Amino acid sequence: MKFFIDTASLSEIKEAQDLGILDGVTTNPSLMAKEGITGEENIKNHYKEICNIVSGDVSAEVISTDYEGMIREGQELVKLHEQIVVKIPMTKDGVKAIKYFSERGIKTNCTLVFSAGQALLAAKAGATYVSPFIGRLDDISTEGLILIEDIRTIYDNYGFATEILAASVRTPMHILNCAKIGADVMTGPLSAILALLNHPLTDIGLAKFLADYAKGNK
Ligand code: E4P
C-alpha cells in the first residue's frame, strides 16, 4: 500500500519524506488555508515546493465547480510540475472533467467520494485515484471501511485500473484496516503514520538491551 501524507505543511512533508516511506501528498483547499497559503501565485508556488520535496504524486485540487473552469484550472495546475495530479470533486461536471483529462493522459484524483456508486462512476470516467473519505463517514456513524471493501470488490470484479486512495484517514487503525482490505493507497496525517511506530514492548525491550550492554561494557 502506498503512503500519502494529507497536509500542506512543508515541515510535516519533509519529516515523512525523511522517514523514507512517503509515496506522495494530498492537499485540499482547507489544508492550504490552514497553512496560511492564499492567493493564486502563492498557492502555485507552494505546490511546486511540495513537488520538490517528494518524488511521488501530489494532488492539487481545483476550485471551479463548472466543467470549463475545472478544465482550465487543471491544465494550469499540471503545467506547474510533472508530479501534479488534478484533484476533482465527485460531481456531474467533475466526472466529465475526469473523462477529459483521462483521455489526454493527465492524472486525476476524484475527491469527496462517499458511496460505491460514486466510486464506480469515477472509475468509468478513468480517474487515476478515487478518494473515499472514511473518517468523515465514521463521523456520521457510518462505517467508512465498509465503503473501502465495497469499492475493492467492484473494482476487482471488472479489473478497473483506478487506485483506491483511502482518504480522511485519522488513526493508525484506519491505516491497518485499509491495508487489510487492500486499499491501494492511504492518505493521512503525520500523527497517524508515526503512531504505527509505537509499541511498549519495543521500548521495554530496547531499554533492557541497552542496560545489559552497559552492564557488560563498563
Ligand atoms: C483527501 O484527499 C482529503 O484531503 C482528506 O483526506 C480529508 O480529510 P479530513 O476528513 O480529515 O479533513
UniProtKB/TrEMBL annotation:
EC number: 2.2.1.2
Organism expressing this protein natively: Leadbetterella byssophila (strain DSM 17132 / JCM 16389 / KACC 11308 / NBRC 106382 / 4M15)
Gene Ontology CC annotations of this record: cytoplasm
Active site per database record: K87
Alphabetical UniProt keywords: Cytoplasm, Pentose shunt, Schiff base, Transferase
Pfam families, alphabetized: TAL_FSA
Catalysed reactions, semicolon-separated: D-sedoheptulose 7-phosphate + D-glyceraldehyde 3-phosphate = D-erythrose 4-phosphate + beta-D-fructose 6-phosphate
GO BP: carbohydrate metabolic process; ketone catabolic process; pentose-phosphate shunt
Name of this protein: Probable transaldolase
Gene3D superfamilies associated with the record: Aldolase class I
Task of the protein: Transaldolase is important for the balance of metabolites in the pentose-phosphate pathway.
Cellular compartment(s): Cytoplasm
Principal place of residence: cytoplasm
Transmembrane segments: none
